[in-house]
Design goal:
Layout lengths: L4 H16 L2 E12 L5 E6 L4 E6 L1 H4 L10 E12 L4 E14 L1 H15 L17 E6 L4 H13 L4 E6 L7 H12 L12 E6 L13 H9 L4 E5 L7 H5 L2 E2 L3 H8 L3 H35 L5 H40 L2 H46 L2 H6 L4 E3 L17 E5 L4 E5 L2
Parallel strand pairs: 3-5, 6-7, 6-8, 8-9, 9-10
Antiparallel strand pairs: 1-2, 1-4, 2-3, 4-5, 11-12, 12-13
Helix pairs in contact: 4-8, 5-6
Amino acid sequence: MPLSVTELVSRLKSAVEYGVGEQCVVGEVGSCKMAGSGHTYFTVKDASAQLQCVFYRYQAMYCRVRLREGMLVELTGKPTVWEGRGSLQFVVSSVREAGLGSLQQQFEALKRKLEAEGLFSPARKKPIPRFPKSVGLITSASGAVIQDMRHRLESRAPWMLAYLYPVQVQGRGAELGIARAIEQWNQAERFSLPQVDYLIIARGGGSLEDLWCFNEESLARAIAASKLPVVSAVGHETDFTIADFVADLRAPTPTAAIELTTPDSAELTTRLQQTEAYLRRACTRALEHARLRLRLAEQGPLRQPLNTLAPFAQRLDVFEEELRRTCREHHSAATSRLQVLAARVSPRALYPRFQAIHHALDAALSRMHHAVARKMESAHAALRVKEAELRAVSPQNALNRGFALVRKPDGTLARNAAELPPGTPLHITLSQGVVDAEVK
């Protein structure tokens, strides 16, 4: 007898629950979502299989581990079949963290490598234009993301031009297409692409596997090499990819990328209206002030400008007369001083002074001659005295009285006969002449 769907699913449920029982399983957390009820629905997987799991709120509230994609976890629970969908799921009773999953480990390793190379440095990030005119969107041509971005752009900055470069944003090789789009838009003229002010890479939310193409090194280096500013708008606010760290700006969602990089037309309109009102008020005040000054000028002295200038003209005449009089007085005083100086230096005035100086010079010359003569006489007298003293002590006087000077062969005077052995030659100086002798 055939079974109903409910009966078959019930039997499957009983077979799984009683046949398998409570088990402990180790795997990597895949997609993970918390419902409004507080229950957490996620997948746990390994290299070749995956399993749907549910962690009910009344169990999760006692668990200190916060589930996230890429975690390696050890789960304790019971398998069952959910009748509502007829699907197999694992009801988790406890969770223990076992480390990072393989994808998460790859993510962390690449992040450390690129960070060490400086690709995440704020110093190399390019600014987004404040008032851009065009933007290049690199995302899927289908789906809600491009429509949401287009509607947000039309509402905020309707004057901007948005160009779509359709690419695959999920699956193997998707990163190559995105990188190629960036490279070609940096050579827009060569590839016949429109010129844009910056690029936005966009994708909706998804699991770590779904977003993995944005964690590939080739895409990260293409973003870093871009001359155009690149905005990364991948996933939801809690999703982070390598592209987010390398990009010049990270937006939590695709629509947030539009809001962060475009001015709000409504806000600009309000500011322009406020500026216009301010300028109108300022111009009105300036005109009123100018009219008031004009009325005062019309009622004041400027109504008859010649009458206003007449007193000043009279003052100029007075100043001119005083200047002329002062000049005449200075000229007269200077002329008088010049005449006095001319009289002082005339030949008639200078001759007596020259005569007096000449007489004084003659007198001084005469005194000098007398003084020199007296000095010469005094010097001659002193010289004669010294000459007499020298003659008195001269050896020649002794020679004239009969003495003689006896010198040994070496030229020294012989003073003792004992020093002169027989045969010693002698030189004898007499009053007149020299005699050579020999000791006998």
